[in-house]
Structure formats: structure tokens, C-alpha cells
Amino acid sequence: MIDKPVLDRARKTLERAAME
Q1: How many CA atoms lie within 13 A of 5 on its CB side?
Q2: Distance of alpha carbon 15 from alpha carbon 20, whole angstroms
Q3: Can you give the pLDDT at residue 9?
Q4: What pLDDT, on the 0 to 100 scale, is given for residue 20?
Q5: What is the pLDDT of residue 2?
Q6: At 13, which helix (H) or strand (E)?
Q7: CA angle 9-15-2, nearest 5°?
Q8: Residues 6+ apart with CB under 8 A from 4
């Protein structure tokens, strides 16, 4: 299972990549 903090971090990174 993945920790929630890790998921949040990955999601933020994905959002940042999608923005650029």
C-alpha cells in the first residue's frame, strides 16, 4: 500500500508537470 503523503506528493508533481 502507498502512504497518503506519498500519494499527495506524486499528485502534486503530476499536476505541476501537466501545467508546464
Answers
A1: 0
A2: 9
A3: 96
A4: 84
A5: 74
A6: helix 4-19
A7: 30
A8: none
Residue 9 cell numbers, joined: 506528493
Please give the single-letter amino acid code of residue 5: P
Q: Chain-centre distance of CA 6, in angstroms? A: 7
- The pLDDT tens digits for 1-20 are 778 999 999 999 999 999 98
- Ramachandran angles phi, psi of 3, nearest 5°: -65, 150
Question: What is the value of pTM for the model shown?
Answer: 0.32
Cα 10 to Cα 20: distance, rounded to the nearest angstrom: 16
